[in-house]
Amino acid sequence: MPRSVNSVASRARRKKVLKHAKGYFGKKKNVWTVAKNQVEKSLGYSYTGRKIKKRDYRSLWVTRINAGARECGLSYSQLMGKLLAKNVDLNRKVLADLAMNHPVAFKAVVESVK
User: What is the CATH number for 68?
Assistant: First the structure.
């Protein structure tokens, strides 16, 4: 009985990994074992990066809200505490957008909870 190796699937798998490795420097783009290791590492970095991006955006929003709140005479923590007490359901993304692009509306929100 002839040996079955399923070279079609193996080649497809290798092509998929080498396609991911396109643009890498040196052997990382065209040597199978090196490319495979680098693609695995890169996928881990991209997973982590997606989490870090969320963290960075939240930090940016907090900074913008704090700057807007201090113009109105409150700190960030005081503002967020008063918003929570008054049951104002505006998330940080929306508040940061108001503070940056619509300062009059942001000021109205702050005055409503003062």
Answer: 1.10.1900.20
Please give the single-letter amino acid code of residue 5: V
Task: Say how far apart CA 30 and CA 26 lie, in whole Å.
Answer: 8
Q: Is residue 80 included in any domain, yes or no?
A: yes
Question: What is the tens place of the pLDDT at every residue in 21-52?
Answer: 999 999 999 999 999 999 999 999 999 999 99
- The structure's pTM equals 0.78
CB atoms within 10 A of CB 35: 21
Whether the Cβ atoms of residue 33 and residue 41 lie closer than 8 Å to each other: no
**CA–CA distance, 92 with 4 (Å, rounded to integer):** 58
